[in-house]
Amino acid sequence: MNRTFLTILTKLALSWRALRKNRLATVGAYMVLTLVMIGILAPWLAPHDPIEQNLGKPRRPPSLEYPMGTDEFGRCILSRILYGSRISLTIGVTSIGMAMVVGVFLGLVAGYYGGLLDGFIMRIVDIMLAFPYFLLAIAIVILLGPGFFNIIITIAIYSVPTFTRVVRGLVLSQKQKEYIEAAKAFGENNSNIIFRYLLPNCIPSIIVYGTLRIGSAILVSSILGFLGLGITPPTPEWGVMLSSGRAYFRAAPHIVFFPGFAIMVAVLGFNLIGDGLRDVFDPRLREEVIK
Amino acid sequence: MFKYSLKRISALLLVLLIVSLIIFLIMHFAPGDPAALSLGITATPEDIERVKKEMGLDDPLITQYIKFLKNAFRGDFGTSYYTKQPVLSELMALFPATAELAVASIIIALSIGIVTGIISALKQNSIFDHLSMVIALLGVSMPVFWIGLILLWIFSIKFGWTPISGRLSVQIDLRSITGLFIFDSIITGNLTALKDTLRHIALPAFTLSTISTGIIARFTRSSMLEVIRQDYIRTARAKGVGEMAVVFKHALKNTLIPVVTVVGLQFGLLLGGAVVTETVFSWPGIGNIIVISILRRDYPMVQGALLLISFIYVAINLLVDISYAYIDPRIRYE
Amino acid sequence: MKEVLLEIINLKTFFYTSTGIVKAVDGVNLRIHKDEILGLVGESGCGKSMTAYSIIRLVPSPPGRIVEGKVLFEGEDLLKKSEREMRRIRGGKISMIFQDPTSSLNPVYKVGEQIFESIKLHQNLDRKTIKKRTLEMMEAVRIPEPEIRSEAYPHQFSGGMRQRVLIAMAVSCNPTLILADEPTTALDVTIQAQILELLGELREKLRTSILFITHDLGVVAEICDRVAVMYCGKIVEYASVVTLFKNPAHPYTKGLLAAVPKITGSGGKLPTIQGSVPVSTDISGCKFYSRCNQAKDICSENEPPSSEIDREHIVSCFLHN
Predict the structure, then answer these.
(1) Pairing relationship of beta strands C64-73 and C4-17 according to DSSP bridges
(2) Tens digits of per-residue pLDDT, B87-140?
(3) A to B CB pairs, distance under 8 Å
(4) Nearest CB partner across the interface for A142, out of B280, B302, B310
(5) What is the pLDDT of residue A100?
(6) CA distance A4 to chain B (A)
């Protein structure tokens, strides 16, 4: 087990190095890093309390006191955006982390054992992927209802199929190779083969898709927020900020503009890293449709 | 190829069946009592019990599901809690709006995407190439509702060129035959209506297309890059074929074949994106109604709309699969 | 003495890559006569294909470039012609056949259409006549049932048949010169024999010259009139086939000949040429020096000059200076 851990670390380190050579990916990495820093340092960076309403000063345009202006309740938009990065990053990383664990496990099992188990798992995956785009997420949200934790679970469930499919494909292609045959001949038991030989080979793809899916997760959670199906106010989630600002759009476009810009920066950052990593690990993988 | 089509159709029908089961289950377990919701706030407990029996809500799950399927086959998707009208007719009234929007978006996405992809590939590593690929990436990263709102602000509010919402200005009189306003205004020769419709659809269609345009551009580019390096392109040049013909005759068809598969996927993105776009522009389509119905807890509507969208998505995928097999001679003549 | 059809003088084609300059063709001098099949032999990577591409100027032009030299065809220097004029020559007066018939045909167009295009590009005839000629061409290359087959797609043909299609395209406009880049390498031995026979026949009927590029000396013996041996971008020996096989002058040629398995002979270990093709082309002196078993000191310092040791037998080697 130690060896697997080391392999993972090494691959991560190598990818970091290779990533630095790719300019766009480096930009993406810095964007994400900035976001993470903002998230961590929000309490110190934010000029005002994000939830504190100031009904006397609604919808003020950007000024010295409120660098991004105030929203319809007089709350400081900048502060809300800074705290919002915590929300988005948490949602993104947690949901994808969960999806990764479940999805990769299912993929490994389906690919390795094949047969009925594989058929069953893949049928479920196909059905989930048969829903157009994020309508699956909407369907799950209907079931679970809105709220912070529910959103995380929704997006996690929604993201599982991608990982399962990718990992299963990789396992299938590696299963035939000689080193697996050799391991079996040596008497290695199945779980060892899966975790010590097959899994490390999947790590690069998992990292690539994981990064891209985090961007996607942030996007979907903001869409759900925008539609009113996601996080509940007064939590400063970017999508929600945008939707509530819509009514005052005409006179105060900044309420809408800044949160959207934040979403873009976050998603773009992860997409750039994911793309860059993909180029590094396998240029052939380019042009997979990921959103 | 006929066998191939049959196989695909039966596989997709199975998927559709299971999807309908899932939608049914989700609606069933969604929070809220359907009987109470359909009656409204004024219902008494006795009323609720009565309606429950009428709706068959006490029956075992299987029975309910089978009844649901049987009804669906007959075209009965239930009645909206909100409008008290049959769900199907409501959806059918809204469907053309979404269809028109989707088609317009795909046309825009394909036109801009394919052309950009081809030029980027031919002028690889030029400024155009780098710029367009970055813009393509931005398109995929920017939330659709944000793009929509920004465009709305620039073109509708700042410049006043396009209207803020809806499909048609109130004062325009258009005889609607198909429900596709562009089409209708052309056949009835109604030029003012046509101009008005186009002004209304411009922004939503462009917004919706941004997701796909980027993907199509990147995909076309990589496809073209691969094709142009193939040996048969070298043969064409050795035959004395000019560069224009090499690109547009020899390379193009080969480039576009894989793009067709991506287009099929785009429809999924479009249908999902339509939900958001229609909300932003108050476009009276199916996407819009899903969101509104969810918020209103009008579950029959939600169920019907989800089913309809899934059905369309599956059908489009089938069409794409079959047309792909038709276009690529290697598959057509097995 | 036959007339000279194509003369290449000091041709240099270099590739500018991120790892340095690759001198694919480094001062090649070559002559092809009318009604002659000239074999161009050498190992993979020695520049034989690039020489052919340079003649019709199809060198992939970001990394590659024709840096110097003259290619005189029917009296005119091809390297000085405009792209438009070259396009008229390609497929018309000079056509090319490629190594892998499978990848060299466009998979989405019918075979007949592709041959049709060759003819249409260079001859001003009406559709019906071109259609007729297409079928005639397919017959000439021995494709059975041309009418039916011309409506088929490349993937429905076997490898040998596809190569015949390519040959049909190449001869459709009565070229004076055919550049054949290892046309039989990707085929089975039996099919190989058929294709060689076909090429010989076509040459008889149309009196075209062929530049036959190959690494297989057996093929050379069978079909070529004269041979040029190439190594590291340079021609090291040039002679008639008979002379080359009987009196090889250059050590490399001798090594190649010795390495061909023979039915007669003593058996025992097959001789090979020690060492391998040098990676860097930036060595001074003779490029074969490191592998030559008859090398002298002067060989590593200076480039060997070409000398004519017999009638039309030219060698680049200090042994014969």
Answers:
(1) antiparallel
(2) 888 888 888 889 889 989 999 999 999 999 999 998 888 888 888 888 888 888
(3) 135
(4) B302
(5) 93
(6) 33
**Partner C contacted by B246 (CB < 8 A):** no
Range of the domain at A228: 32-290
Asked if the C-beta of C112 comes within 8 angstroms of chain B's C-beta atoms, the answer is no
C162–chain B nearest CA distance, Å: 12
Burial class (CB in 10 A: 0-12, 13-18, 19+), C252: buried
ipTM of the complex: 0.84
- Report the distance separating Cα A141 and Cα A230, nearest Å: 8
In chain C, % of residues over pLDDT 70: 96
Dihedrals phi, psi of A98, to nearest 5 degrees? -60, -50
pLDDT at C10: 92
> Which conformational region is residue C142 in: left (phi greater than 0), alpha (psi within -120 to 50 degrees), or beta?
left
Query: Residue A98's pLDDT is what?
Result: 94
pLDDT in tens, B214-246: 889 988 998 999 898 899 999 999 998 888 889
Q: Cα separation of B243 and B247, whole Å?
A: 6
pLDDT digits (tens, 9 = 90+) for A80-120: 888 888 888 999 999 999 999 999 999 888 888 878 888 88
Q: Residue A264 and residue B138: Cβ atoms within 8 Å? A: yes
Task: Judge A/C contact: 3 or more CB pairs < 8 A.
Answer: no
Q: What is the pLDDT of residue A287?
A: 35
Mean pLDDT of C213-235: 90
Contact of A241 with A87, CB cutoff 8 Å: no
Average pLDDT, integer, range A211-224: 90
Sort out which chain C residues have CB atoms less than 8 A from B242's CB and list them: 87
- Residue of chain B whose Cα is closest to the Cα of C122: B240
The domain tally of chain A equals: 1
CATH of the domain at A127: 1.10.3720.10
Apex CA A156: angle with CA A152 and CA A161, to 5°? 165
Fold classification of B87-327 is MetI-like fold (1.10.3720)
Inter-chain contacts counted by CB atoms under 8 A, chains B and C: 69
Residue A72 falls inside a structural domain: yes
Which of C96, C106, C155 has the most B C-beta neighbours within 10 Å, making it the best mutation to test the interface with B?
C106
Cα A99 from Cα A104, distance rounded (Å) = 8
Residues C121 and B241: beta-carbon distance below 8 Å: yes
Q: Which residues contact C23 (CB under 8 A, 6 or more apart)?
A: C12, C14, C15, C233, C281
**C107, B329: Cβ pair inside 8 Å?**
yes
Q: Where are the domains of chain B?
A: 2-73, 87-327
> What's the mean per-residue pLDDT of chain C?
87
| Gap from B197 CA to chain C (nearest CA, Å) | 40
Question: Which of B142, B99, B113, B139 minimizes the C-alpha distance to B271?
Answer: B99
Tell me if B294 and A222 make a contact (CB, 8 A cut-off). no
Tokens 């990769």 appear where?
A104
* Neighbour count for residue C60 (Cβ, 10 Å): 12
Structure tokens at A11: 């691959």
Helix then strand then coil, % of chain B, to nearest 5: 80, 0, 20
Nearest one of A252, A284, A269 to A89, comparing CA atoms: A269
* φ, ψ (nearest 5 deg) of residue B44: -95, 160
In this predicted model, what pLDDT tens digit does every residue of C82-117 receive, in sequence order? 989 999 999 889 999 998 888 999 998 999 999 999
pLDDT surpasses 70 at A288: no
Pick the CATH number of C4-83+181-194+205-320 from 1.10.150.240, 3.40.50.300, 3.30.420.40, 1.10.10.10: 3.40.50.300
Residues in chain C: 321
Domain ranges for chain C, please list them.
Answer: 4-83+181-194+205-320
Q: How far away is chain A from the Cα of B203, in angstroms, using its nearest Cα?
A: 17
